[in-house]
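It would be a great kindness if you could assist me with a short task in structural biology. A protein sequence and the structure tokens that stand for its backbone fold form the material at issue. I should value your view on which stretches of the chain appear to form regular backbone elements. The record follows directly beneath this note.
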Amino acid sequence: MGEFAFEGNRYSLLRLFGVAVFFIVIAPVFWRLTQLHPDAIGAAYENADLYQSIYPSFHYGFSRLRAGQLPLWNAKELCGTPFLAQPSTALFQPINVVFLFLPTEQAMAVHAYLCLAMMGIGFVAFARALDLGYTAALIGGILYAFCGASAAAASRPAIAAALAWTPCLFWGMREAMRQTRFGCAVPAGLAGAALMLCGTPAVSLHMLLAALTYGLFLGFYAPDAAHGPDMRERFERLLIITVIAVAVSAVQWVPTLAWLLLLDRPWDALWAVELPAQAPMSFHELVAQAIVPQAGALPHLVYMGAAPLAAIPLAFIHHASRRDAFFFAPAAAALLALAVIGPERFPASFPHACAAFPASFLLAALAAIGFDRLLLTRRGTHALRLRHAAVILFVVTAVLFYVSPLETRGRLAVLLGIALPVVLFRWKWVSIAAGLALATAFLADLSTANKNLYAHPFSDAPACYQRHGRTLRLVEEQTLGARMLTAAPPVHFGLPLRLGMIRAGLYEAGGLAPLTRDQAIWWRRLGTGDAAKAEAVRPKAILAPEAELPGLLNAMAVRAIVVAPESPLADGRFTRGGLQLSSMHTDDGAILFRNNTAWPRALWVPTWRIAEGAAAAANLLGMADFDGLRECTIDRDSPGFDTLAAIVPGPRDPAGTPLPNLPEGLSCSVEDHGAEHVIVRTRSPQPGIVVLADTYDPGWKATMDGTPCPILRANGLFRGVAAPAGSHEIVFSYRPWPFFTGAALSLGALGLLALLGTVIYLRG
């Protein structure tokens, strides 16, 4: 009764339900216990990526989904940038459905709870697939769900989701290799797809490679090989699992690959992950963090306690799972070695520290196997070996007790006292009681030893964003422009403005999105300081005193510039070269400048020059004789360049003909400016070029009066359309083919799986 399995009765519905309830209840308690002291929270509050990029990204993406809009494009930063193509958005991650129904700050906390619970529940299911007892499975689930890696990632939605889906993938992989039913490969494939959709390629890659290696191992040495599928069938299933994972997740990775081809530093953008563990770590430090928590080293990515690690040797005498232990051990060692030697053997951009995440899972699996052997109550030689192994375990733990810091000795002593009955008694109930007591002690140890730098109440986040609310309202009320720029601020200053900009519907010329190759050229000229010299992935401090300002800022339609009072730019040193600024002081810790020379968001110009790329365009825009209100630059490689001269005579010879005057009756304005849909209306008695100061991207299409027309690359970064004389309605629509191709592949794969499942079900 209450038993289910693909083949067998390894899974009890009642017991799994109890496990699920346990982790669902304990997860929020653990998450709260791992929070830092409020003083430490304040120091890290606004310096965390969680608040700089993760929170605003999820708020923007899911708020648009709630409004019935697909957020393909983010018009709020960098003059426009692809949104959904960035893997960090994670809009298709199944666990992220909570963001559709809850406010972002509440959904962040609920997401952390769900991921922690999934880590424990999934691990228990995987442990049962390893033929471990429920007590040992529960201990392993606690060690994995609440170890240092999990505590560190709990409030990082992408990393937490990757850790949550990993045991599901390992479970599905093992069941697919031992069952005779061909459809058993489907759960593993779907788990692999969910892992690929987590939004953190750096962590997901390490998890997927570990799981794939485990699948290859099972292909050669599968459990129940005598009664299950043969080797050829096992490798066929591994291939099917891979195909399902790749096909279902195509909605994300296809547009991401197309987006990466446009970036200045694609690998840095793909692997970008901010973790304290990225700092170089010696092997000694690694071992120390794994055994005892080190003060000041937060988070401890590999800490799960001394006793669990001491139990690992017992895994190699386990009667059923010894073969798995011989895979887990070298795999964990290799991953930990990668975390240690990565800084010296791999490029700086390679996320070597992320190897600690799959290593933690494998170490928890080894510890669970060891404790399962420890808790067995069989007679004979096995029991004798058990007692000898247990004695070794407690001797090691006792030694660690004496060498560990004073603040950890109490916990180790508790572990010794609780585990001692396992050595002295052999009755089943004693073993179960001792196992549960061990689980409790481990939970207490992990909750006090591991800390989450960012696990503090998200309900306080909106207050941070409203700090400069008056400045934002002033920008809106005075229509200071289509676009604003937070110039060279400290992080704690620029953050509320950038996030407030998203909430208020304003547009930012800066931002945190990765830069394309053309954008990188401009942002370095805008003066991003040391980050620019190092060719940083993202713009950091905009507008250094030495920046090339007038032409670039005007072309970007930047009308509002906000600086911090302590900024070196607050004294107006960047007001030069024809840039006309008027200051408006606010009382909320910001200085607001109005750029009186900014060009309109959409403008009509009668003539043009040829520019070979963004650098050449930037050079032309900086020339004294360039008048952006009457001319623009056009890239020779633009679609429709060959027919441009037939519509708008040119190009203008800068050394020859003078600039024409603007005609009478000219009008050009943005009538509707959505994220993926922009309407511009223009009227002129002569032909010209309509320039929209929004980022050029191959995914944008344009129609003029309902007829498709090519989009020119104007002024280096932006969109232009050649308009004949008369009145016209120009509609820009964002329709990126990589997304629709990926979506078609994913929907087709899911539809095919549903069809096959229906057929199999109907056939009985």
In short: The chain has three domains: 3-449, 470-595, 602-737. Residues 634 and 714 are 5 Å apart (CA to CA).
